[in-house]
Specification:
The protein is mainly beta and 174 residues long. Helix content is 10%, strand content 44%. The protein contains 1 helix and 8 strands; from the N terminus they run αββββββββ. Strands 1-2-3-4-5-6-7-8 form an 8-stranded antiparallel barrel. β2 and β3 form a beta hairpin. 16% of the residues are buried.
Length: 174
């Protein structure tokens, strides 16, 4: 009888171990290539020579980022390292909402204003599942706001930049 119970425990334990799965949080990443970018005239992003980029969100790790590919400053005709310089905006997701039309909005922000920093806000709207008859400028729209206190005037200033991107999709599934 003891052998039977021991054998059953082994079988049950083996089934649980075989059916258990470990999913990497990166499995849930959604990303899209940028189509357009329009930076605020006073934004530091305007000084970059942007050649492309991508946006990605991960609802499991709660991270959203925009990666801007920058032009390589290699002289014409010279042999340079094959790399693409980039600038990355990475913020923690604070809210994920789905409206009545089916538009999913990811809001990511970091507020460092209390410690002499800035408040950076990234709002990514995925309109691909919308059931409303509306016109959207792109499948994914992105706004990036940089808010800080101007010490000269003693006022709060905001730099508002807009971007559009293709449809958000998993990089692992095509």
């Amino acid at each position: 009888m003891k052998n039977f119970i021991f054998a059953m425990l082994l079988v049950i334990g083996g089934l649980n171990a075989a059916s258990a799965r470990s999913l990497n949080p990166e499995t849930f990443v959604k990303e899209a290539n940028l189509i357009t970018w329009d930076f605020d005239v006073d934004s530091h992003l305007r000084s970059f020579d942007v050649t492309g980029g991508k946006v990605s969100v991960n609802p499991v790790t709660k991270i959203a980022n925009v990666t801007l590919n920058l032009a390589n400053n290699c002289p014409v005709g010279a042999y340079c390292f094959a790399y693409i310089p980039e600038f990355k905006i990475e913020l923690p997701i604070t809210k994920i909402e789905k409206d009545g039309c089916g538009v999913v909005t990811y809001r990511a922000e970091r507020n460092e204003m209390p410690v002499d920093g800035a408040k950076n806000t990234l709002v990514i709207k995925d309109t691909t599942l919308s059931v409303c008859e509306m016109f959207y400028p792109a499948a994914t729209t992105i706004t990036y706001d940089e808010t800080f206190i101007n010490r000269l005037q003693g006022q709060t200033e905001t730099r508002h930049s807009r971007m559009t991107a293709e449809k958000l999709h998993s990089p692992f599934i095509r």
